[in-house]
């Protein structure tokens, strides 16, 4: 890298040589400007002479912008004389100090580069070898006229500083810049002798990007100077902006010497832009040209984000189009004694130096008496001019920003010299030292200036980055002013670098933060979908899919809710899914409960009636023991339906299915027993039949017990192997949970139902066979009809149970239980109760047997009497 630096410097020397030679041939008058010795604008002899180089004038555009044609005279406008004089003041203050360099007198040679790189290179050679000039018109070297300077303060901007640092670096001469901020200068491989007291643009670019992100500006424009300062600074900003998720609509470059058509094109891009925030990494001179072009056709109100080069520049503050501009600038400071030094200037003193003469005459637009040479002003100064009445950057000491950087840089060099030649309180002016010794001591300096500022450099030659956040606000008189509204300190932990001290006036007057986005923020409940072919900041807001949410603004993706949760209406949060089951307070649950209790109550009432009239013929003829057992089982059937209502639990799930299976088998067994009794009674009428003794009361009880016990065994096996359990059904509905009882073993469940169905079919067949009984003893017909209803209900139940959703599945099951129970109850017991209560005349043995009693009826009555 060092070899590369030397080659670049050598090319620069050749370029200056060609530049000067070609310029002399094309324009002999301009040859004197570039080839004659460059004289300092301010100088003083001393034991050690510190160099200084500032852009006191701006080199403006020439008529022919080529490398070989030079203007006869640079078109200059003085702006940085106060910086050069600040170096002069600091040297005098150090010379008067008894602690720093006692007995040593520092001198200075301060040059004006006119913000031109060739001039900086020319001055660098004079600093390096003490020659009056590098080349004359015959390309012959001139003799040494002064000693080599130990260090240089300057340059004022990045591009001249790069040229200066490359030259000085070859000779080990330290350069301490007060305002060259290009991050490229931190590369010690290319610029080993460069130091600065102003922060690197690396920190400024990161701070600007973070500020843009903080205020929610994701769609911005960018303009920069087409120089090292602008290009490197904007590159660092764009990199930081990309990391922060900021999109740049355009990035335009301009330099003041470029053709006007380029300036117009940049201005038109800004006018047509949809971005309402512009980041300008641009020098004050380039910014001035750009704003002058924009005010001719003003664009919509723009929020300017400024770099330190123009945010505090007095020439730009007159453009109201930049009202509300925000940017980072070097902090203000106070330098005791400097204001008095700057204002201690009389016409007699101004006549001593051409630069002061020019300043005086241009400030007051008059020609000083006694001056040598011609003046551009016809009016002669009359002596009433008062420098304290001027309002310009020279006299305005309320904004000592870069001035303090010059002050710190000069003190840093003085401390380095002190470390080399001084031992405790003794300094030896005859001490011979090299520039590399000064360079090494600069790396180690660490002190506090008289005005309280810490000075030290890191390994890259940079200071700690401290900025003031500046906001352009209107004053009462309608003019704009620089108002500090916050601070930035890179030494603070991340997230604590910013400290706001007052409110920002956006666009000059409003307190509401302006909006600059390509697309509005996507609210919670939506996600961003990047528009095809556009930057990532341009997107559409797509609602989250069903079952998904986004709970923050500008979500990239939606996320699924957990299985037990479902999005709310706005799809920005997950809410617990409502749990649905057939509850006691549900309307359907209340209705079914009423019917269940009513059925159980009616069964108890009928049992009471039968018990009261147990001696009556109709009760005795209908097998009172099985009738009471049937009524008991029907009561249990009605009541078991209640176990299906309410929140399912482990016990309720096991109870409801087993209770239902056993009680219904008990019920069907009783009906089956009654049917068999009737059939057996009529079979007993056949000659030689002896069946009645095989189906007496003991056999009836045993048959009921056997049928019921088989169902109980099936239920026990079911409960043992895979019992029913509570189950959250999440698949039936997306937005709610169905809490139901899972049957566990499907084989067990259908075995219970199948056994009930088998008994019901058997009972139906037997009752159908007994339908030819005498009309007055018609119970077999009622059993047939009840079994027909029972079978119809349960055959219909199967498809209804499978297809019913949610809690209605349970309701269908309860309905089947109640319907079949009521069918049995009404068909078997309603006719008998009607006769007992409302037709007591028919409740006689004579009526049951008819006029000619038949033997089957007598057999039934006898069988019932035994029971």
Write the layout of secondary structure elements.
Blueprint lengths: L1 H25 L1 H8 L6 E3 L3 E7 L26 H15 L10 E7 L4 H13 L21 E3 L4 H13 L3 E4 L16 E3 L4 H14 L4 E7 L2 H16 L3 E8 L5 H13 L4 E5 L2 H11 L8 E4 L1 H4 L14 E4 L8 H6 L3 H4 L3 H11 L37 H20 E2 L2 E2 L7 H10 L1 E3 L5 E3 L9 E9 L5 E10 L8 E3 L25 E5 L8 E5 L4 E2 L9 E2 L4 E3 L6 E3 L2 E2 L6 H26 L4 H5 L2 H17 L9 H34 L13 H25 L3 E5 L7 E6 L3 H24 L9 H25 L3 H32 L6 H5 L5 H12 L1
Parallel strand pairs: 2-3, 2-4, 4-5, 5-6, 7-8, 7-9, 9-10, 10-11, 25-27
Antiparallel strand pairs: 1-3, 11-16, 12-13, 14-15, 16-17, 17-18, 19-20, 21-22, 23-24, 26-27
Helix pairs in contact: 1-2, 1-5, 3-14, 4-5, 6-7, 8-9, 14-15, 16-18, 16-23, 18-19, 18-23, 19-20, 19-21, 19-25, 20-21, 21-22, 22-23
Main location: membrane
Membrane topology: Multi-pass membrane protein
Pfam families: 7tm_3 (PF00003), ANF_receptor (PF01094), NCD3G (PF07562)
Short synopsis of the structure:
By secondary structure, the protein is an alpha/beta fold. The strands form eight sheets. Strands 8-7-9-10-11-16-17-18 form an eight-stranded mixed beta sheet, with helices on both faces. The chain has a six-stranded mixed beta sheet with strand order 1-3-2-4-5-6, with helices on both faces.
């Amino acid at each position: 890298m060092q070899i590369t630096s030397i080659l670049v410097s050598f090319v620069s020397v050749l370029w200056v040589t060609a530049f000067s030679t070609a310029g002399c041939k094309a324009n002999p008058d301009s040859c004197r400007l570039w080839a004659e010795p460059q004289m300092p604008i301010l100088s003083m002899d001393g034991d050690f002479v510190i160099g200084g180089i500032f852009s006191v004038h701006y080199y403006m555009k020439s008529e022919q912008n080529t490398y070989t044609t030079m203007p006869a005279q640079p078109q200059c406008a003085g702006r940085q004389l106060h910086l050069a004089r600040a170096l002069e003041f600091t040297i005098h203050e150090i010379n008067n100090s008894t602690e720093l360099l006692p007995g040593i007198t520092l001198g200075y040679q301060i040059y004006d580069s006119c913000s031109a790189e060739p001039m900086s290179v020319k001055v660098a050679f004079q600093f390096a070898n003490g020659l009056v000039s590098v080349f004359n018109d015959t390309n012959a070297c001139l003799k040494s006229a002064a000693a080599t300077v130990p260090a240089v303060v300057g340059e004022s901007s990045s591009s001249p500083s790069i040229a200066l640092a490359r030259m000085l670096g070859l000779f080990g001469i330290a350069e301490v810049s007060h305002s060259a901020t290009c991050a490229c200068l931190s590369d010690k491989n290319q610029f080993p002798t460069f130091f600065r007291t102003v922060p690197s643009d690396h920190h400024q670019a990161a701070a600007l990007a973070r500020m843009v992100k903080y205020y929610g500006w994701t769609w911005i424009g960018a303009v920069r100077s087409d120089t090292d300062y602008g290009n490197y600074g904007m590159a660092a900003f764009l990199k930081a902006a990309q990391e922060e998720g900021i999109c740049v609509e355009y990035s335009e470059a301009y330099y003041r010497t470029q053709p006007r058509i380029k300036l117009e094109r940049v201005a038109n891009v800004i006018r047509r832009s949809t971005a309402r925030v512009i980041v300008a990494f641009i020098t004050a001179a380039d910014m001035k040209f750009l704003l002058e072009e924009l005010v001719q056709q003003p664009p919509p109100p723009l929020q300017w984000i400024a770099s330190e080069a123009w945010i505090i520049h007095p020439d730009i503050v007159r453009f109201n189009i930049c009202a509300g501009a925000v940017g980072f600038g070097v902090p203000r400071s106070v330098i005791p004694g400097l204001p008095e030094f700057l204002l201690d200037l009389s016409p007699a003193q101004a006549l001593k130096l051409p630069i002061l003469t020019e300043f005086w005459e241009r400030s007051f637009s008059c020609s000083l008496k006694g001056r040598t040479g011609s003046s551009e002003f016809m009016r002669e100064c009359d002596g009433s001019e008062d420098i304290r009445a001027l309002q310009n950057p020279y006299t305005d000491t309320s904004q000592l920003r870069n001035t303090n950087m010059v002050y710190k840089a000069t003190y840093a060099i003085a401390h380095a010299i002190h470390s080399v030649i001084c031992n405790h309180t003794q300094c030896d002016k005859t001490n011979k030292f090299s520039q590399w010794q000064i360079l090494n001591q600069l790396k180690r300096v660490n002190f506090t200036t008289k005005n309280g500022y810490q000075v030290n450099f890191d390994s890259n030659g940079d200071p700690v980055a401290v900025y003031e956040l500046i906001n352009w606000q209107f004053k009462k008189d309608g003019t704009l002013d620089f108002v500090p509204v916050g601070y930035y300190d890179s030494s603070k932990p991340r997230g604590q670098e910013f400290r706001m001290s007052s409110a920002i006036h956006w666009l000059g007057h409003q307190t509401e933060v302006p909006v600059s986005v390509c697309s509005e923020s996507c609210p919670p409940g939506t996600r961003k979908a990047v528009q095809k072919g556009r930057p990532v900041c341009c997107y559409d807001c797509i609602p989250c899919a069903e079952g998904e949410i986004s709970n923050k603004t500008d979500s990239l993706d939606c996320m699924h809710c957990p299985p037990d949760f479902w999005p709310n209406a706005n799809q920005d949060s997950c809410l617990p899914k409502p749990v649905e089951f057939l509850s006691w307070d549900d309307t359907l649950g209340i209705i079914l409960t009423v019917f269940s209790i009513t059925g159980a109550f009616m069964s108890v009432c009928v049992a009471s009636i039968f018990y009261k009239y147990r001696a009556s013929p109709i009760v005795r003829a209908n097998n009172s023991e099985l009738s009471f057992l049937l009524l008991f089982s029907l009561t249990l059937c009605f009541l078991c339906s209640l176990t299906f209502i309410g929140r399912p639990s482990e016990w309720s799930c096991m109870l409801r299915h087993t209770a239902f299976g056993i009680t219904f088998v008990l019920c069907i067994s009783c009906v089956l027993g009654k049917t068999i009794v009737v059939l057996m009674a009529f079979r007993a009428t056949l000659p030689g039949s002896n069946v009645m003794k095989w189906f007496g009361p003991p056999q009836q009880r045993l048959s009921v017990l056997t049928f019921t016990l088989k169902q109980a065994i099936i239920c026990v096996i079911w409960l043992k192997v895979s019992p029913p359990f509570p189950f959250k059904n999440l698949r039936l509905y997306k937005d709610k949970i169905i809490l139901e009882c899972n049957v566990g073993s499907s084989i067990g469940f259908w075995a219970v139902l199948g056994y009930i169905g088998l008994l019901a079919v058997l009972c139906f067949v037997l009752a159908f066979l007994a339908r030819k009984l005498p009309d007055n003893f018609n119970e077999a017909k009622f059993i047939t009809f009840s079994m027909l209803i029972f079978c119809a209900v349960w055959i219909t139940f199967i498809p209804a149970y499978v297809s019913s959703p949610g809690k209605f599945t349970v309701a269908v099951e309860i309905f089947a239980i109640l319907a079949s129970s009521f069918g049995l109850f009404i068909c078997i017991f309603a006719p008998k109760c009607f006769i007992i209560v409302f037709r007591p005349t028919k409740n006689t043995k004579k009526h049951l047997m008819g006029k000619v009693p038949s033997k089957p009826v007598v057999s039934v009555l006898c069988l019932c009497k035994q029971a």
